[in-house]
Every structure is written in C-alpha cells, then in structure tokens.
Write a structure and sequence with these properties.
Layout (H helix, E strand, L loop, with lengths): L1 H12 L9 E3 L5 E4 L9 H15 L6 E5 L8 H21 L7 E5 L9 E5 L17
Parallel strand pairs: 3-4
Antiparallel strand pairs: 1-2, 2-5, 3-5
Length: about 140
C-alpha cells in the first residue's frame, strides 16, 4: 500500500519551477528544485517535498543519487557562484539524509554558473543524465 502512494504523491509535487522553491520532475528523469536568487536555504515546503521523494530514492536497490546545483550570478565572480551552488547542493543532500536516504549514497556537484544561468538543484537517480562537466576538450595536435 505504501509503495502505491509514492507515485501519487510525486504527481502532486510536480509543476513548473517558480521563483521560489518548487520541486518538479525533469523530463530526463529525476527532479528539479528552484531557489530564489542568491539563497541556499530550504523553506519548509521544499524540505517536505524532498522528504516525499527520499523513500523512493532509498528504495532503489543500488546506485548513487547525484545532487547537481547551479547559481545564476554574478557573471563576473565564478567563485561566488560555485560556493552558492555548493551550499544549495549541501542543503538538498542534508534534507534527503534527514528524510532517511543514507548519506553514503549521495554525491553532490557544485556547477556554479552555467549557460543559461539558473538557480536550481537537480536530484538525479542512478541512470539519469548528468550535466556535462566543463568545456569541451581541446585538440592537442
């Protein structure tokens, strides 16, 4: 019975990412959580939404969950964007752990400012596509 409630609950959580913190499903798999610009803390609704998906992630038989976070600004300070995205990824990881997902199954990636800029964290189950890391490799001819 409990297993049947998880998909129904996840449908209730979906919706567009607004300026605040809203959890939505990604078409590629996983979830996206929006953050207000410049902030890294989770509000009560975001913590509750993450607590709703944590049991489904914990029930996966194997594999690691990745939390990738981004920050939209400022464009002239890559270090600040990277630190903000790291704080966001850590806040999401902490909420998932508080909801019962083992910390040893979670990887975090601070992506900093990407193109296009976004204020989000993505929760990616095993097999979901991850963001490309860094620029394309250069030819060494």
């Amino acid at each position: 019975m409990r297993r049947a409630l998880i998909p129904v609950f996840l449908v209730l959580l979906t919706g567009p990412v607004a300026a605040g913190q809203a959890l939505s499903e990604r078409a590629e798999g996983g979830w996206r959580l929006g953050f207000p610009a410049g902030q890294s803390t989770l509000d009560a609704a975001a913590r509750d939404a993450l607590a709703g998906i944590a049991p489904a992630l914990a029930a996966l038989p194997q594999g690691r969950i990745t939390v990738e976070a981004q920050a939209s600004g400022p464009s002239d300070d890559a270090s600040l964007a990277r630190r903000l995205s790291l704080a966001r990824a850590g806040a999401v990881r902490d909420a998932l752990v508080a909801a019962g997902l083992p910390a040893t199954r979670i990887d975090i990636r601070a992506l900093g400012r990407r193109d296009p800029p976004a204020d989000i964290a993505e929760i990616l189950p095993p097999g979901a596509p991850r963001a490309e890391s860094g620029p394309a490799p250069r030819s060494t001819r």
